[in-house]
Amino acid sequence: MSKINNVAIVGGTHGNEFSGVYLINKWQQHPQLIARPSLKVETVFANPKAHGENKRYIDADLNRQFSASNLADFSLANYEQSRAKALHQQLGPKSKPNMDLVIDLHNTTSNMGPTLILLEQTPFYKQLAAYVTMQMPEAVVFLDEPEEDMSNHRFLASCGKYGVLIEVGPQPQSVLRQDVLEQMEQMTGHILDFVELYNQQDLPELPKQVEAFLYLDSIKLPLNDKGERLAMVHSNVQDNDYQPINTGDPIFRTFMGEDICYQGEKTVYPAFINEAAYYDNDLAMSLLDKVYLELE
Amino acid sequence: MSKINNVAIVGGTHGNEFSGVYLINKWQQHPQLIARPSLKVETVFANPKAHGENKRYIDADLNRQFSASNLADFSLANYEQSRAKALHQQLGPKSKPNMDLVIDLHNTTSNMGPTLILLEQTPFYKQLAAYVTMQMPEAVVFLDEPEEDMSNHRFLASCGKYGVLIEVGPQPQSVLRQDVLEQMEQMTGHILDFVELYNQQDLPELPKQVEAFLYLDSIKLPLNDKGERLAMVHSNVQDNDYQPINTGDPIFRTFMGEDICYQGEKTVYPAFINEAAYYDNDLAMSLLDKVYLELE
């Protein structure tokens, strides 16, 4: 087992997700709040320009720019494509990362509560998920779509040897809610505590199994042939992130008042329901499978 | 009593408040839904350019551009200042309005439910408020800050002989919620029904008194001498629009965990709590007085 020595906590990857921006600022002024004896912890403000303009991004979504091919292509030169290359120098490179762990802080307008998103399912991640949910039972574990390997992953957190996202909602863009900020702060603290105990080989007894939700697919709002929306997310689904959707359940309501029902054969669990940032591409929600992480 | 002949329903005055934009679109395709026998009802898409860019506004808040002095000053030439002059031609002029009633549709990220905002407190408005709250008991009546006269009012709705806003939340910017859209559609329908009955002199018996909330003031978040925020809206206040705040109640929480309490001597009622659009100017909430409208 190799120790985790260097940790980066990243805020403002999306400029209008305020909790991370304000927490980073607080921790820069009070670094003792994130200090742990065996770690060097630093804070990074990922997209200050987008935050200054109160937008998710200036030219392109920063959290989709970290695949090996994007990072190697210097003709990709807009603000976020350039910022990604700089952040990859600072946090990575992926081949030999400066950072053993990257914690990337995000908000969603969806009712997802405090969610821990894991990029992989190796023993380190499973133990982390077990510890965090033991300390914070309201936390949800979300397993990102498996990538062939981390070098092709598009997320900022993939720059580190290990990478996680903390995703907390519901919070409208450009708003700071006390409850959401506190949940993000608590989950960050539990992750840092875990890493300290992991380094000291002093972890408490962890559960053998952890419930998690595995990303399957995203579904779009119904559109007409001009690309105009015909329906909204159904009120039965709205705010019910992680609650089961079964075959035949209504998931959309047309503007004329008709229900459109889920046709899949398997029970699925939605997240990012009606997320504001996904409106450009007409995404309605992500669909997840409920799975269990087995610890050794 | 003079009849109401021409009514304009306006959506998209703020480009990222989606309910009005989608309702206008629906009613343009199905005008029978807003038709009433004694009325000519038209729909107006106030700020299509801002909606196209998924923003509240391009250059300036359109709903602050309708004072007589702004409308007369042709050196004020940015997009919204120009658009305001065009809308004033279409809906006004205030001296002799084309529209007897302007209904302007808005969303808020605050938990204000379906709110009817009245620009004045004349008998027509009081009867309207009484009818709408009788049909829709969850509706809240909000009395705008009294202006010296309507010619100086900055809101779009002041272009009409009468003007109201329908303000429904909570809904994040750029999101369409079924519940919020339905409340906006219902309230619009009740207003049109009222006008039809008013024209026919066939109003039902109305309550003699209607509870309402009168705008007093707006308060800002606590800032340091660099203009940086020191605190957030307190979780005791968050989402509790229209619930009383008494002397000594905590209203802010500093980032270091201390409570800041309300110092006013009089009980007040907040609205627009933590509204995303007011974050540029650090407004935390509006404070209102609870009053009663007396019908003759």
TrEMBL record, chains A, B:
<feature type="domain" description="Succinylglutamate desuccinylase/Aspartoacylase catalytic">
    <location>
        <begin position="4"/>
        <end position="194"/>
    </location>
</feature>
<dbReference type="Pfam" id="PF24827">
    <property type="entry name" value="AstE_AspA_cat"/>
</dbReference>
<feature type="binding site">
    <location>
        <position position="17"/>
    </location>
    <ligand>
        <name>Zn(2+)</name>
    </ligand>
</feature>
<comment type="similarity">
    <text>Belongs to the AspA/AstE family. Aspartoacylase subfamily.</text>
</comment>
<dbReference type="InterPro" id="IPR007036">
    <property type="entry name" value="Aste_AspA_hybrid_dom"/>
</dbReference>
<keyword id="KW-0479">Metal-binding</keyword>
<protein>
    <submittedName>
        <fullName>Probable aspartoacylase</fullName>
        <ecNumber>3.5.1.15</ecNumber>
    </submittedName>
</protein>
<keyword id="KW-0378">Hydrolase</keyword>
<dbReference type="GO" id="GO:0019807">
    <property type="term" value="F:aspartoacylase activity"/>
</dbReference>
<feature type="binding site">
    <location>
        <position position="14"/>
    </location>
    <ligand>
        <name>Zn(2+)</name>
    </ligand>
</feature>
<feature type="binding site">
    <location>
        <position position="106"/>
    </location>
    <ligand>
        <name>Zn(2+)</name>
    </ligand>
</feature>
<feature type="domain" description="AstE/AspA barrel-sandwich hybrid">
    <location>
        <begin position="209"/>
        <end position="288"/>
    </location>
</feature>
<feature type="active site" description="Proton donor/acceptor">
    <location>
        <position position="167"/>
    </location>
</feature>
<keyword id="KW-0862">Zinc</keyword>
<dbReference type="InterPro" id="IPR055438">
    <property type="entry name" value="AstE_AspA_cat"/>
</dbReference>
<dbReference type="GO" id="GO:0005829">
    <property type="term" value="C:cytosol"/>
</dbReference>
<dbReference type="Pfam" id="PF04952">
    <property type="entry name" value="AstE_AspA_hybrid"/>
</dbReference>
<dbReference type="InterPro" id="IPR016708">
    <property type="entry name" value="Aspartoacylase"/>
</dbReference>
<dbReference type="InterPro" id="IPR050178">
    <property type="entry name" value="AspA/AstE_fam"/>
</dbReference>
<dbReference type="GO" id="GO:0016788">
    <property type="term" value="F:hydrolase activity, acting on ester bonds"/>
</dbReference>
<dbReference type="GO" id="GO:0046872">
    <property type="term" value="F:metal ion binding"/>
</dbReference>
